[in-house]
Amino acid sequence: MSDADAPQPGAPPDGPRVVSTGGDRSDGIVRCERCGASEASLNVATGMLRCGFCRYEWRTENALVTFDLDGAIGELSGVVVGSGTADVTADPSVTLRCTACGADVVIDTTAGVQARCHWCRHTLSLTEQVPNGAVPDMLLPFRVPKADAVTRVAEFVGKRTFFAHPRFRAEFTPENVMGVYLPYMVVDVNAHARVAGEGEHQTRSYTVQVRNSEGETRSERRYDADVYDVRRAFDVHVDDLTVESSAERLDRDTERTSNNVINTILPFDVENGVRYDPRYLQGFTSERRDVDVDALRGAVHQQVGDIARWRADETIDHYDRGVRWDSTDVDVHGERWVSAYLPVWLYSYLEEKKDGSTLLHYVAVNGRTGETMGSIPLNKGRLALVAGVVEAFALVAAVVLWVLM
Ligand SMILES: [Zn+2]
Ligand SMILES: [Zn+2]
Protein backbone atom coordinates (compact mmCIF):
# COMPACT_ATOMS: atom_id res chain seq x y z
CA MET A 1 0.00 0.00 0.00
CA SER A 2 1.46 3.34 -0.98
CA ASP A 3 1.39 6.53 1.01
CA ALA A 4 -1.35 7.91 -1.15
CA ASP A 5 -3.73 5.13 -0.13
CA ALA A 6 -3.01 5.34 3.57
CA PRO A 7 -5.76 6.97 5.57
CA GLN A 8 -4.56 10.27 7.01
CA PRO A 9 -5.19 11.06 10.65
CA GLY A 10 -7.91 13.63 10.94
CA ALA A 11 -8.85 13.49 7.26
CA PRO A 12 -12.24 12.18 6.15
CA PRO A 13 -11.96 8.62 4.73
CA ASP A 14 -12.41 9.74 1.13
CA GLY A 15 -10.97 13.22 1.50
CA PRO A 16 -7.83 14.39 -0.23
CA ARG A 17 -4.35 13.76 1.13
CA VAL A 18 -3.01 17.19 2.06
CA VAL A 19 0.71 17.88 1.66
CA SER A 20 1.72 20.73 3.92
CA THR A 21 3.68 23.35 2.00
CA GLY A 22 3.40 26.07 4.63
CA GLY A 23 6.25 24.66 6.72
CA ASP A 24 6.97 25.92 10.20
CA ARG A 25 7.15 29.57 9.28
CA SER A 26 4.87 31.94 11.12
CA ASP A 27 3.79 35.35 9.93
CA GLY A 28 5.74 38.46 10.69
CA ILE A 29 9.31 39.36 9.90
CA VAL A 30 11.19 37.16 7.43
CA ARG A 31 14.86 37.95 7.99
CA CYS A 32 17.99 37.85 5.87
CA GLU A 33 20.06 34.81 6.86
CA ARG A 34 23.24 36.87 6.95
CA CYS A 35 22.41 40.33 8.37
CA GLY A 36 18.90 39.91 9.75
CA ALA A 37 17.31 42.69 7.67
CA SER A 38 13.61 42.25 6.85
CA GLU A 39 13.77 43.59 3.31
CA ALA A 40 14.66 41.43 0.36
CA SER A 41 13.41 41.11 -3.19
CA LEU A 42 13.83 39.11 -6.38
CA ASN A 43 16.87 39.86 -8.51
CA VAL A 44 15.31 39.12 -11.91
CA ALA A 45 18.75 38.73 -13.52
CA THR A 46 19.77 35.81 -11.30
CA GLY A 47 16.38 34.49 -10.21
CA MET A 48 17.55 34.68 -6.61
CA LEU A 49 16.38 36.66 -3.60
CA ARG A 50 18.63 39.57 -2.65
CA CYS A 51 18.85 41.26 0.75
CA GLY A 52 18.01 44.96 0.54
CA PHE A 53 20.87 45.84 2.89
CA CYS A 54 23.85 43.51 2.60
CA ARG A 55 23.12 42.36 -0.99
CA TYR A 56 23.49 38.72 0.02
CA GLU A 57 21.73 36.51 -2.53
CA TRP A 58 20.23 33.09 -2.03
CA ARG A 59 18.13 30.60 -3.93
CA THR A 60 15.03 29.01 -2.47
CA GLU A 61 14.07 25.36 -2.79
CA ASN A 62 12.28 23.91 -5.78
CA ALA A 63 8.71 23.51 -4.56
CA LEU A 64 7.61 20.29 -6.30
CA VAL A 65 10.81 18.44 -5.37
CA THR A 66 10.86 19.69 -1.76
CA PHE A 67 7.27 18.67 -1.13
CA ASP A 68 7.50 15.48 -3.17
CA LEU A 69 4.70 16.69 -5.44
CA ASP A 70 6.39 15.53 -8.65
CA GLY A 71 6.29 11.74 -8.21
CA ALA A 72 5.41 9.41 -11.09
CA ILE A 73 1.94 10.27 -12.38
CA GLY A 74 1.20 6.61 -13.15
CA GLU A 75 1.40 5.89 -9.43
CA LEU A 76 -0.99 8.66 -8.42
CA SER A 77 -4.12 7.46 -6.71
CA GLY A 78 -6.85 9.38 -4.96
CA VAL A 79 -6.64 13.12 -4.58
CA VAL A 80 -3.41 14.76 -3.41
CA VAL A 81 -3.40 18.51 -2.78
CA GLY A 82 -0.91 21.08 -1.55
CA SER A 83 -2.10 22.79 1.62
CA GLY A 84 -2.11 26.07 -0.34
CA THR A 85 -5.11 24.83 -2.35
CA ALA A 86 -7.44 24.84 0.67
CA ASP A 87 -10.93 26.17 -0.01
CA VAL A 88 -11.09 29.94 0.24
CA THR A 89 -13.22 30.64 3.29
CA ALA A 90 -11.51 33.29 5.35
CA ASP A 91 -11.75 37.04 5.40
CA PRO A 92 -9.18 38.53 3.01
CA SER A 93 -7.87 40.89 5.69
CA VAL A 94 -5.36 39.44 8.14
CA THR A 95 -3.78 40.92 11.24
CA LEU A 96 -0.05 40.40 11.65
CA ARG A 97 1.82 41.02 14.87
CA CYS A 98 5.16 42.75 14.39
CA THR A 99 7.66 40.51 16.16
CA ALA A 100 10.07 43.43 16.57
CA CYS A 101 7.86 45.93 18.40
CA GLY A 102 4.61 44.05 19.06
CA ALA A 103 2.32 46.29 17.02
CA ASP A 104 -0.68 44.76 15.19
CA VAL A 105 -0.72 45.56 11.49
CA VAL A 106 -3.67 44.67 9.26
CA ILE A 107 -2.94 43.44 5.74
CA ASP A 108 -5.63 43.46 3.10
CA THR A 109 -4.64 40.36 1.15
CA THR A 110 -6.70 41.41 -1.86
CA ALA A 111 -4.09 44.15 -2.29
CA GLY A 112 -0.89 42.38 -1.24
CA VAL A 113 0.78 40.09 1.25
CA GLN A 114 3.29 42.53 2.71
CA ALA A 115 3.02 45.64 4.85
CA ARG A 116 5.36 47.88 6.74
CA CYS A 117 4.97 48.16 10.49
CA HIS A 118 3.90 51.78 11.02
CA TRP A 119 5.88 51.98 14.27
CA CYS A 120 9.25 50.39 13.63
CA ARG A 121 9.16 50.27 9.81
CA HIS A 122 10.04 46.57 9.60
CA THR A 123 8.52 44.76 6.61
CA LEU A 124 5.92 42.21 7.70
CA SER A 125 5.01 39.31 5.46
CA LEU A 126 2.10 36.92 5.33
CA THR A 127 3.62 33.45 5.02
CA GLU A 128 1.16 31.32 6.92
CA GLN A 129 -1.50 29.73 4.74
CA VAL A 130 -4.63 31.35 6.12
CA PRO A 131 -7.42 30.01 3.90
CA ASN A 132 -8.01 33.25 2.03
CA GLY A 133 -6.31 32.29 -1.20
CA ALA A 134 -3.43 34.74 -0.85
CA VAL A 135 -0.64 32.26 -0.05
CA PRO A 136 -0.08 29.53 -2.68
CA ASP A 137 2.01 26.36 -2.52
CA MET A 138 4.58 27.70 -4.92
CA LEU A 139 5.61 30.55 -7.11
CA LEU A 140 7.48 30.96 -10.38
CA PRO A 141 9.70 34.07 -10.12
CA PHE A 142 9.89 36.65 -12.93
CA ARG A 143 12.75 36.01 -15.36
CA VAL A 144 11.88 38.59 -18.04
CA PRO A 145 13.05 42.03 -16.79
CA LYS A 146 10.73 45.01 -17.01
CA ALA A 147 12.74 46.76 -19.77
CA ASP A 148 12.38 43.64 -21.93
CA ALA A 149 8.62 43.51 -21.26
CA VAL A 150 8.26 47.19 -22.24
CA THR A 151 10.03 46.48 -25.56
CA ARG A 152 7.83 43.48 -26.28
CA VAL A 153 4.61 45.38 -25.53
CA ALA A 154 5.77 48.28 -27.72
CA GLU A 155 6.60 45.87 -30.58
CA PHE A 156 3.26 44.09 -30.28
CA VAL A 157 1.29 47.34 -30.42
CA GLY A 158 3.64 48.81 -33.06
CA LYS A 159 2.74 46.04 -35.53
CA ARG A 160 -0.94 46.84 -35.05
CA THR A 161 -0.79 50.63 -34.94
CA PHE A 162 -2.63 51.07 -38.22
CA PHE A 163 -5.74 49.38 -36.84
CA ALA A 164 -5.53 50.82 -33.34
CA HIS A 165 -8.06 53.26 -32.02
CA PRO A 166 -6.58 56.81 -32.27
CA ARG A 167 -7.17 57.50 -28.59
CA PHE A 168 -5.38 54.27 -27.62
CA ARG A 169 -2.47 55.25 -29.86
CA ALA A 170 -2.28 58.69 -28.28
CA GLU A 171 -2.34 57.35 -24.73
CA PHE A 172 -0.05 54.37 -25.31
CA THR A 173 2.74 54.30 -22.71
CA PRO A 174 4.37 50.85 -22.58
CA GLU A 175 6.41 51.92 -19.52
CA ASN A 176 3.19 51.47 -17.52
CA VAL A 177 3.45 47.70 -17.85
CA MET A 178 3.00 46.03 -14.45
CA GLY A 179 4.38 42.79 -13.08
CA VAL A 180 1.59 40.65 -11.65
CA TYR A 181 1.61 37.20 -10.10
CA LEU A 182 -1.60 35.52 -11.28
CA PRO A 183 -3.16 32.59 -9.40
CA TYR A 184 -3.18 29.20 -11.11
CA MET A 185 -3.70 25.59 -10.17
CA VAL A 186 -1.10 23.18 -11.53
CA VAL A 187 -2.69 19.77 -11.98
CA ASP A 188 -1.38 16.26 -12.67
CA VAL A 189 -3.88 13.58 -13.61
CA ASN A 190 -3.53 9.79 -13.82
CA ALA A 191 -6.45 8.48 -15.84
CA HIS A 192 -7.62 5.64 -18.01
CA ALA A 193 -9.41 6.68 -21.18
CA ARG A 194 -11.73 4.81 -23.52
CA VAL A 195 -12.79 6.38 -26.79
CA ALA A 196 -15.10 4.80 -29.34
CA GLY A 197 -16.37 5.77 -32.75
CA GLU A 198 -16.64 4.83 -36.41
CA GLY A 199 -13.81 4.87 -38.95
CA GLU A 200 -13.60 4.38 -42.71
CA HIS A 201 -10.80 2.78 -44.68
CA GLN A 202 -10.83 3.19 -48.45
CA THR A 203 -10.50 -0.08 -50.38
CA ARG A 204 -10.91 0.99 -54.02
CA SER A 205 -11.42 4.07 -56.16
CA TYR A 206 -12.49 4.01 -59.77
CA THR A 207 -14.19 6.05 -62.47
CA VAL A 208 -17.57 5.22 -64.00
CA GLN A 209 -19.44 6.74 -66.92
CA VAL A 210 -22.88 8.03 -66.02
CA ARG A 211 -25.56 9.14 -68.42
CA ASN A 212 -28.07 11.81 -67.48
CA SER A 213 -31.68 12.18 -68.62
CA GLU A 214 -30.60 14.11 -71.74
CA GLY A 215 -28.39 11.24 -72.76
CA GLU A 216 -25.09 13.02 -72.11
CA THR A 217 -22.36 11.01 -70.43
CA ARG A 218 -19.73 12.19 -67.99
CA SER A 219 -17.20 10.48 -65.75
CA GLU A 220 -17.72 10.23 -62.03
CA ARG A 221 -15.23 9.18 -59.36
CA ARG A 222 -16.42 6.42 -57.01
CA TYR A 223 -14.88 5.24 -53.74
CA ASP A 224 -15.39 1.98 -51.85
CA ALA A 225 -14.63 1.90 -48.15
CA ASP A 226 -14.87 -0.50 -45.24
CA VAL A 227 -16.56 0.87 -42.15
CA TYR A 228 -15.17 -0.12 -38.76
CA ASP A 229 -16.12 0.24 -35.15
CA VAL A 230 -13.00 1.88 -33.71
CA ARG A 231 -12.17 1.63 -30.02
CA ARG A 232 -9.10 2.69 -28.09
CA ALA A 233 -8.32 2.23 -24.40
CA PHE A 234 -5.14 3.54 -22.80
CA ASP A 235 -3.67 5.27 -19.77
CA VAL A 236 -3.33 9.05 -19.88
CA HIS A 237 -0.76 10.83 -17.71
CA VAL A 238 -1.31 14.59 -17.72
CA ASP A 239 1.60 16.58 -16.31
CA ASP A 240 1.40 20.19 -15.10
CA LEU A 241 -1.85 21.30 -16.64
CA THR A 242 -2.20 24.98 -15.67
CA VAL A 243 -5.66 26.27 -14.85
CA GLU A 244 -6.60 29.82 -13.98
CA SER A 245 -8.03 30.13 -10.49
CA SER A 246 -9.37 33.65 -10.32
CA ALA A 247 -13.09 34.10 -10.91
CA GLU A 248 -12.43 37.32 -12.75
CA ARG A 249 -9.91 35.69 -15.13
CA LEU A 250 -12.29 32.81 -15.74
CA ASP A 251 -14.93 35.30 -16.82
CA ARG A 252 -15.05 34.68 -20.55
CA ASP A 253 -17.57 37.42 -21.29
CA THR A 254 -15.89 39.16 -24.20
CA GLU A 255 -18.34 42.05 -23.91
CA ARG A 256 -16.53 43.27 -20.83
CA THR A 257 -13.04 41.93 -20.93
CA SER A 258 -10.44 40.44 -23.21
CA ASN A 259 -9.05 38.23 -20.40
CA ASN A 260 -8.68 35.11 -22.49
CA VAL A 261 -5.43 36.49 -23.92
CA ILE A 262 -3.75 35.29 -20.73
CA ASN A 263 -4.29 31.69 -21.82
CA THR A 264 -2.52 32.30 -25.11
CA ILE A 265 0.83 33.05 -23.44
CA LEU A 266 1.03 29.59 -21.85
CA PRO A 267 2.99 27.44 -21.16
CA PHE A 268 4.97 28.24 -18.04
CA ASP A 269 7.89 26.09 -16.86
CA VAL A 270 6.07 25.32 -13.62
CA GLU A 271 8.52 22.49 -12.83
CA ASN A 272 10.97 25.28 -11.87
CA GLY A 273 8.57 26.82 -9.34
CA VAL A 274 10.04 27.61 -5.95
CA ARG A 275 8.61 27.32 -2.51
CA TYR A 276 6.40 30.32 -1.83
CA ASP A 277 8.24 33.21 -0.20
CA PRO A 278 6.49 36.60 0.06
CA ARG A 279 9.72 38.43 -0.65
CA TYR A 280 9.47 37.42 -4.33
CA LEU A 281 6.38 39.64 -4.49
CA GLN A 282 8.23 42.80 -3.50
CA GLY A 283 7.85 45.33 -6.33
CA PHE A 284 5.13 43.27 -8.05
CA THR A 285 1.45 42.88 -7.42
CA SER A 286 -0.40 39.63 -6.95
CA GLU A 287 -3.94 38.49 -7.44
CA ARG A 288 -5.60 36.38 -4.79
CA ARG A 289 -7.01 32.99 -5.77
CA ASP A 290 -10.79 32.87 -5.23
CA VAL A 291 -11.75 29.62 -6.97
CA ASP A 292 -11.46 26.23 -5.25
CA VAL A 293 -10.40 22.77 -6.46
CA ASP A 294 -13.98 21.46 -6.59
CA ALA A 295 -15.07 24.31 -8.84
CA LEU A 296 -12.25 23.62 -11.32
CA ARG A 297 -12.33 19.80 -11.33
CA GLY A 298 -15.02 19.42 -14.01
CA ALA A 299 -13.12 21.63 -16.47
CA VAL A 300 -9.88 19.75 -15.78
CA HIS A 301 -11.48 16.34 -16.40
CA GLN A 302 -12.96 17.68 -19.61
CA GLN A 303 -9.48 18.75 -20.75
CA VAL A 304 -8.20 15.25 -19.95
CA GLY A 305 -10.93 13.93 -22.29
CA ASP A 306 -9.78 16.33 -25.03
CA ILE A 307 -6.19 15.19 -24.57
CA ALA A 308 -7.31 11.55 -24.77
CA ARG A 309 -9.05 12.16 -28.11
CA TRP A 310 -5.95 13.90 -29.52
CA ARG A 311 -3.80 10.96 -28.48
CA ALA A 312 -6.31 8.50 -29.95
CA ASP A 313 -6.14 10.46 -33.23
CA GLU A 314 -2.45 9.58 -33.45
CA THR A 315 -3.33 5.87 -33.72
CA ILE A 316 -5.86 5.90 -36.56
CA ASP A 317 -3.69 6.21 -39.69
CA HIS A 318 -5.31 3.08 -41.13
CA TYR A 319 -8.66 4.88 -41.36
CA ASP A 320 -7.68 7.15 -44.22
CA ARG A 321 -11.20 8.47 -44.63
CA GLY A 322 -11.30 9.58 -40.99
CA VAL A 323 -12.76 8.55 -37.65
CA ARG A 324 -15.72 10.11 -35.90
CA TRP A 325 -15.39 9.70 -32.14
CA ASP A 326 -18.82 9.21 -30.57
CA SER A 327 -17.89 8.69 -26.94
CA THR A 328 -15.04 9.44 -24.56
CA ASP A 329 -14.94 7.94 -21.06
CA VAL A 330 -12.28 9.00 -18.62
CA ASP A 331 -11.72 7.19 -15.31
CA VAL A 332 -9.55 9.35 -13.11
CA HIS A 333 -7.44 7.14 -10.80
CA GLY A 334 -5.44 9.93 -9.22
CA GLU A 335 -5.00 13.68 -9.33
CA ARG A 336 -2.61 16.15 -7.75
CA TRP A 337 -3.33 19.85 -7.25
CA VAL A 338 -0.81 22.55 -6.41
CA SER A 339 -1.63 26.25 -6.23
CA ALA A 340 0.86 28.63 -7.81
CA TYR A 341 1.57 32.26 -8.59
CA LEU A 342 2.76 32.64 -12.18
CA PRO A 343 4.47 35.80 -13.46
CA VAL A 344 2.84 37.98 -16.14
CA TRP A 345 3.70 41.49 -17.33
CA LEU A 346 0.44 43.27 -18.10
CA TYR A 347 -0.28 46.38 -20.07
CA SER A 348 -3.94 47.12 -19.60
CA TYR A 349 -6.17 49.68 -21.23
CA LEU A 350 -9.80 50.41 -20.43
CA GLU A 351 -11.67 51.29 -23.60
CA GLU A 352 -14.62 53.60 -23.05
CA LYS A 353 -17.15 53.09 -25.80
CA LYS A 354 -19.56 55.65 -27.21
CA ASP A 355 -22.52 53.92 -25.52
CA GLY A 356 -20.87 54.38 -22.12
CA SER A 357 -19.84 50.73 -21.68
CA THR A 358 -16.23 49.78 -21.10
CA LEU A 359 -14.02 46.98 -22.39
CA LEU A 360 -10.78 46.02 -20.71
CA HIS A 361 -7.90 45.30 -23.09
CA TYR A 362 -4.59 43.66 -22.23
CA VAL A 363 -1.24 43.04 -23.73
CA ALA A 364 0.29 40.24 -21.67
CA VAL A 365 3.91 39.08 -21.61
CA ASN A 366 4.81 35.70 -20.12
CA GLY A 367 7.21 36.62 -17.28
CA ARG A 368 9.33 33.52 -18.00
CA THR A 369 9.40 33.10 -21.78
CA GLY A 370 8.56 36.58 -23.08
CA GLU A 371 5.69 35.15 -25.19
CA THR A 372 3.43 38.13 -25.92
CA MET A 373 -0.23 38.33 -26.87
CA GLY A 374 -2.94 40.88 -26.46
CA SER A 375 -5.92 42.77 -27.69
CA ILE A 376 -6.08 46.46 -28.54
CA PRO A 377 -9.06 48.75 -29.14
CA LEU A 378 -9.69 48.90 -32.87
CA ASN A 379 -10.35 51.72 -35.21
CA LYS A 380 -13.60 50.40 -36.75
CA GLY A 381 -13.39 52.76 -39.73
CA ARG A 382 -10.03 51.44 -40.88
CA LEU A 383 -11.05 47.87 -40.20
CA ALA A 384 -14.16 48.29 -42.38
CA LEU A 385 -12.06 49.88 -45.11
CA VAL A 386 -9.64 46.94 -45.13
CA ALA A 387 -12.46 44.40 -44.99
CA GLY A 388 -13.98 46.18 -48.00
CA VAL A 389 -10.70 45.97 -49.89
CA VAL A 390 -10.34 42.27 -49.09
CA GLU A 391 -13.86 41.62 -50.35
CA ALA A 392 -13.13 43.53 -53.52
CA PHE A 393 -9.99 41.42 -53.98
CA ALA A 394 -11.97 38.25 -53.44
CA LEU A 395 -14.47 39.40 -56.05
CA VAL A 396 -11.69 40.16 -58.55
CA ALA A 397 -10.09 36.80 -57.82
CA ALA A 398 -13.40 35.03 -58.38
CA VAL A 399 -13.88 36.79 -61.71
CA VAL A 400 -10.34 35.95 -62.81
CA LEU A 401 -10.85 32.30 -61.89
CA TRP A 402 -14.10 32.23 -63.76
CA VAL A 403 -12.44 33.67 -66.84
CA LEU A 404 -9.62 31.13 -66.64
CA MET A 405 -11.95 28.13 -66.29
ZN1 LIG B 1 21.23 40.91 4.60
ZN1 LIG C 1 7.12 46.95 14.44
Walk me through this protein's architecture.
The chain is an alpha+beta fold and 405 residues long. The protein is built from 6 helices and 17 strands. A hairpin with a 5-residue loop joins strand 11 and strand 12. The relative contact order is 0.19. The N terminus is likely disordered. The structure holds zinc ion (2 copies). One zinc ion binds next to loops.
Provide keyphrases for this structure.
405 residues, alpha+beta, 6 helices, 36% strand, binds zinc ion
What is the average of the pLDDT values?
Answer: 82
Judged by helices, strands and strand pairing, the structural class is alpha+beta
Which small-molecule ligands are present, each listed once?
zinc ion
How many helices?
6
Main sheet: strands, sense, barrel? 10 strands, mixed
Describe how the helices and strands are arranged.
Layout: E1 17-19, E2 40-43, E3 48-51, E4 57-58, H1 63-66, E5 78-82, E6 93-97, E7 104-108, E8 114-116, E9 123-125, E10 138-139, H2 146-158, H3 166-171, E11 178-211, E12 217-244, H4 247-250, E13 274-275, E14 285-286, H5 293-313, E15 323-352, E16 358-366, E17 372-374, H6 380-404
Parallel strand pairs: 1-5, 5-15, 10-15, 11-14
Antiparallel strand pairs: 2-3, 3-4, 6-7, 8-9, 10-13, 11-12, 11-15, 15-16, 16-17
